[in-house]
Design goal:
Its cofactor is FAD. With 622 residues, this protein is α+β, with helices and mostly antiparallel strands. It is 36% helix and 18% strand. Strands 1, 2, 6, 7, 8, 9 and 20 form a seven-stranded mixed sheet that branches. A six-stranded antiparallel sheet has the order 14-15-16-17-13-18, with no helix packed on it.
């Protein structure tokens, strides 16, 4: 069946696997996507949404690099929101509600239209390895498929165990079996493995809910989109709703705590800190008698509803009884109960920054196998693993994004350098250069890099160059054009800003707090310039951010330059830290395990102190 040797085999068809297959294939590698169920490619296993705080920036970055997640999200969106608009632009984060069935369908169709991608439905039970180098995979039917590299994106399927109350059964997702064999083989090869937990809430029948008792949560009045390509923004949207738990709901849930796998010791692994189950929230925040619940439709036509904020592994009868006491849920009907799932992962300190494993050459890990949580985090890792698997086979330099270049760079560097003992989720606070890493400029940051390796198309590159040229032209217009007091003072007066007595450059006037682009467009010169050049809202937003936050941006660039100087100081491969007795014991132990490539990476390892870095610099003659 498989006589030819593939360049890249991707194991798993979730968000990481789909992006990995697309990236490798679009770069020219002959790629095989092997998954246990081809109907579930790009499946949204948990909430029907993409993006959110920091995650939205990641989706924009994936799109800027030539990935598919942004396009698929736009094509299947039912609502769009830009979160954190009341804060600075570094915090603005796009988010879509999506039609779950259409999302998976769009992913499947986009991959089928991608040249160089073959598909095969079966479970991969092991890897073919020769001389510490992966040469293919073995399936549960005993079929050997040869390849030059393999990307593992197994999600929650590796020895997956589902918990609902006191019941437990094997599975990687509700209704799907777990994957076995791979963990055991990798451990035998010397890999360290661990267990993690995640969970999901009940799905209910929207026809049984009373939305009149809930608070409506509409999308943006003027919705944007994720992709920098010509996908269409929404013209109409579906509302979400919000309700709350109560003290009575909490009391009903507590009745089942003795049968909860989380509290009776059945679940021993750690779950996502920032997306706790409802029983965990009640236990950890005992002083609160109410928690928010967001009611999210699963699509345009379906009546199925996702109950965000009610993730649980309590017995199904307890879930049902408690949920019926929530306002608006008095007559709720279940489609399926919530559940928790435990699965194997491999601490990501065992990887290089390319996501290739240190122990087995040409073997890459991406997604929840690395201890992350979230579609967006998984998709970005899949994209980078697919890119780097291809580049290595072509004997080209790897694509490694720096911390000041992308949230994806922060994500991967955190995983490789610090590791994680609980499901890792991206936040804006994890990025020290978040003013540089905004959602509005992901294409300016990353499309040139992607175009240079052949992934981002010429069309994408041309559009990015036009955006850069137009936004710079608008910024220069404000920098070079003066405005008279009689024209600008009415605007200053409207925002309670001090008036001026002489003309000044528009740039300076625009830099004042509370003065927005809408205010500046009231000036005839500005309005005419924008109309003459046909600048769209994207260009106006880009120019406004550049002007209003120029000081912060310049400061972060200076700090990033300092980081780059340390990145330039390389540490020899297989460096023997044990001979540096001046290093702390913890520093010697951790650096020996992680094997940092540069001084900068070494400085970010937990437990490595500034004095340890000084010792290293002295030894390296710096």
């Amino acid at each position: 069946m498989f006589e030819e040797e593939y360049d890249v085999i991707v194991v798993g068809g979730g968000h990481a696997g789909a992006e990995a297959a697309a990236a490798a294939a679009n770069l020219g590698s002959k790629t095989l996507l092997v998954t246990m169920n081809l109907q579930n490619i790009g499946q949204m296993s948990c909430n029907p949404a993409m993006g959110g705080i920091a995650k939205g920036q990641i989706v924009r970055e994936i799109d800027a690099l030539g990935g598919y997640s942004g396009i698929v999200s736009d094509k299947s969106a039912i609502q769009f929101k830009m979160l954190n608009k009341s804060k600075g632009p570094a915090m603005w984060s796009p988010r879509t509600q999506n039609d779950r069935m259409r999302f998976a369908e769009e992913w499947r169709l986009m991959l089928e239209r991608t040249e160089n991608v073959d598909f095969y439905q079966e479970m991969v039970s092991g890897l073919l390895i020769e001389n510490n180098k992966v040469v293919g995979v073995k399936t549960s039917l005993g079929i050997n498929i040869k390849s030059k590299s393999v990307v593992l994106t197994n999600g929650t399927f590796l020895n997956g165990l589902i918990h609902i109350g006191e019941k437990q059964f094997g599975g990687g997702r509700a209704g799907e079996r777990a994957a076995t064999g791979i963990t055991e083989q990798l451990v035998e090869l010397g890999f360290e493995s661990g267990r993690m937990k995640t969970g999901t809430p009940p799905r209910v029948d929207g026809r049984s809910l009373d939305y009149s008792k809930m608070i409506v949560q509409p999308g943006d009045v003027i919705p944007e989109k994720f992709s920098y390509t010509k996908t269409k923004p929404l013209t109409h949207q579906r509302d979400c709703y919000m309700t709350h738990t109560s003290a009575m709901v909490h009391d009903l849930l507590r009745e089942g705590f003795d049968r909860s796998p989380m509290f009776n010791g059945r679940i021993k692994s750690l779950g996502p800190r920032y997306c706790p189950s409802i029983e965990d929230k009640i236990n950890r925040f005992a002083d609160k008698d109410s928690h928010q619940m967001f009611i999210e439709p699963e699509g345009w036509e379906t009546v199925e509803v996702y109950v965000n904020g009610f993730s649980t592994s309590l017995p199904e009868d307890v879930q049902f009884k408690a949920l019926r006491s929530v306002v608006g849920f008095e007559n709720v009907k279940f489609f399926r109960p919530g559940y928790a799932i435990e699965y194997d992962y491999f601490p990501p300190t065992q990887l290089k920054h390319t996501l290739e494993t240190k122990l087995v050459e040409n073997l890459y890990f991406a997604g929840q196998i690395n201890g992350t949580t979230g579609y967006e985090e998984a998709a970005s890792q899949g994209l980078m693993a697919g890119i780097n698997a291809h580049l290595k086979l072509q004997e080209k330099d790897a694509l490694i994004l720096k911390r000041d270049e992308a949230y994806i760079g922060v994500l991967i560097d955190d995983l490789i350098t610090k590791g994680t003992e609980e499901p890792y989720r991206m936040f804006t606070s994890r990025a020290e250069y978040r003013t540089l890493l905004r959602q509005d400029n992901a294409d300016l940051r990353l499309t040139p890099l992607s175009h240079s390796i052949g992934l981002a198309t010429d069309t994408r590159m041309k559009r990015m160059e036009e955006k850069l040229e137009q936004s710079e032209a608008l910024v220069n217009f404000f920098r070079e054009t003066s405005v008279l007091p009689k024209d600008i003072n009415p605007i200053f007066e409207s925002v309670d800003s001090s008036l001026v007595k002489q003309s000044d450059k528009m740039y300076k006037a625009f830099s004042r707090p509370n003065v927005t682009m809408d205010h500046m467009l009231q000036l005839e010169d500005v309005s005419n310039f924008v109309k003459e050049n046909n600048f769209d809202s994207e260009i106006l937003e880009q120019a406004e951010v550049q002007i209003k936050y120029s000081g912060y941006i310049a400061k972060e660039k200076v700090n990033a330059d300092k980081l780059h100087r340390l990145e330039a100081v390389k540490i020899p491969v297989n460096f023997d830290y044990s001979k540096l007795k001046s290093l702390s014991f913890e520093a010697r132990e951790k650096m020996t395990k992680i094997q940092p490539v540069t001084i900068s990476q070494a400085s970010r390892i937990s437990g490595v102190t500034p004095s340890d870095i000084s010792v290293l610099l002295v030894y390296l003659g710096r």
